[in-house]
Amino acid sequence: MKIALFIPCYIDQFYPQVGIATLQLLEKLGCNVSFPLKQTCCGQPMANSGFSSLNKGCDVNFVENFSGFDYIVAPSGSCVLHVKEHLKDDSHTEEAKKIRNTTYELTEFLTDILKVETINVSFPYKVGLHNSCHGQRGLGLSSMSERMLPEFSKPEQLLNMVKGIQLSKPKRNDECCGFGGTFCIFEEAMSVKMGKDRIKEHNVNDVEYITGVDTSCLMHLEGILKRQGSKIKTIHIAEILNSSL
Questions:
Q1: Integer Cα distance of 192 and 177 in angstroms
Q2: What pLDDT score was predicted for residue 55?
Q3: Per-residue model confidence (pLDDT) at position 49
Q4: What is residue 213's three-state secondary structure?
């Protein structure tokens, strides 16, 4: 099984430890992982801002970098969803289609493809789980309150395998944190208020860490936490599952 590791821009620039944890975790689970060195932005920021027509260069580069692999795995639900829904290359239509169908967010890859049932790691802390919108509603990583279906959560399923962890969820556990890509820039006040509401509910649960599958959401919450002088830290789920602390 040949796996390509896709690392989004903000992880590469600001949270490289998340990319390293993802690589180490996949290798521990027996995966043959490669990191295409010429990968760049997937094009999501342009598409989210209404300029998807400018994505051609990103799409062509993505197809060039990630062709020939069995699976492409990324520690980011939002970037994975963008690739699955928008990637196209008129010169390599079949290869682009294959990439769209074989690109996975980390936790869905672990649960759906590798079918991980045990993880021998320990993280003895109180941890609050944040559900990111793209992962939950776009990729179906967890159930949604607006749909009358059995409750499930792939990230929670994996975290429950971690020894010593005390996992909790906010009362409104499928509500947006307010990041939303460029939304947090154009609608700053609303974005911050939404983030503060999420943090307030995690505070009620007396957590030490907030985790999730999207570093972008965690970055947004981290900024608010720091401004509040909070002792709560953010940590990507890959770091917990890799027991990097």
A1: 8
A2: 84
A3: 75
A4: coil
State the DSSP code for 136: I
The two three-digit tokens of residue 80, written as one number: 């994975």
| Mean pLDDT calculated for residue range 135-152 | 90
- Distances in Å between the Cα of 207 and the Cα atoms of 95, 168, 199, 224, 235 are 44, 8, 10, 15, 12
Tokens representing residue 224 in the block: 């608010």
For the entire predicted model, the pTM comes to 0.93
Long-range contacts of the stretch 95-102 (C-beta < 8 A, 24+): 95/63, 95/67, 96/59, 96/63, 99/62, 99/63, 99/66, 99/67, 99/72, 102/69, 102/70, 102/71, 102/72
Cα–Cα distance, 191 to 183 (Å, whole number): 7
d(CA 164, CA 177): 27
238 Cβ partners below 8 Å, 6+ apart? Answer: 18, 21, 22, 25, 75, 106
For the chain, helix (H) and strand (E) counts, in that order, are 13, 8
d(C-alpha 171, C-alpha 192), whole Å? 19
Q: List pLDDT tens digits, range 25-77.
A: 999 999 999 999 999 998 887 877 777 777 889 999 999 999 999 999 999 99
